[in-house]
Design goal:
alpha+beta, 3 helices
Length: about 70
Amino acid sequence: MTLEFTVGIKVAGARQSVTVAAEDALTAALRVKHERPAAAINYVRPSNKRGDQRHPHLSLSAAVAKS
């Protein structure tokens, strides 16, 4: 069963939050680290449907394409 996690990262001094579908928090963090090796992972939390709809985060593929 996959859940959505929000992962906070810092790349080149800029903070970003990305949403990742994964089975657990460790897997979500490792997926982000695999796609962005230079990123420092600040936090991993389950996505909050209400709050994340008001302030949407990038998906992992969109964050990689952005930089």
